[in-house]
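**User:**
Everyone, produce one record:

**Assistant:**
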Amino acid sequence: MVPKKKHHYIPQFYLREFSDRYGPKGQEPYVWVYEKRMDKPAEKRSPKNIAAETHFYPASGVTSTKIQAVEDALSRFESRVAPLLREVLSFRQVPQGKERLLFAYFLAVMLTRTLKVRQEINVAMEDLVRKMNAVITKSEDRLRAVVRRMERDTGERVDVPISELRKFMFNGKFEIVPSKEWSLVG
């Protein structure tokens, strides 16, 4: 099976609950989308074309088998939750017992799979790495010890003199881009 490239961070079954079911017969129900930051008029889109990104889950450093396994697990999970969502919307009641726990878990997962959360994780990771760099670069001896440990653990040699590396890290004029592995799949 070829792994899916287009990953939805908001499930299609959830988006379909917001679709305009009164459109023309034979036409797929659509959702009205307004992109506030673009300041464009609202437009109708199919749920399959909303809240999705090509390779939202990592494409590098993680096997396509692992990505597909995550997609499959989310699909199975969502198929258990979809009837609960319809029930909640129809009866306007929160489920009870195990179904309540499943629904709460679904809401928690929904909160963690968005672009906004990914951006917040990236900001937090960048801040953490910069703070760690500040501690590591306080002395050449500390930095040298960290470099030696990294060389031993990875088997790769750092060919930059410690004084230059310390200066580079200390000035902080570099970009830190956390990998997608720090999100749901990682």
The beta strands are 6-8, 31-33, 43-45, 52-54. Residues 148 and 154 are 10 Å apart (CA to CA). The chain has two domains: 6-113, 118-182.
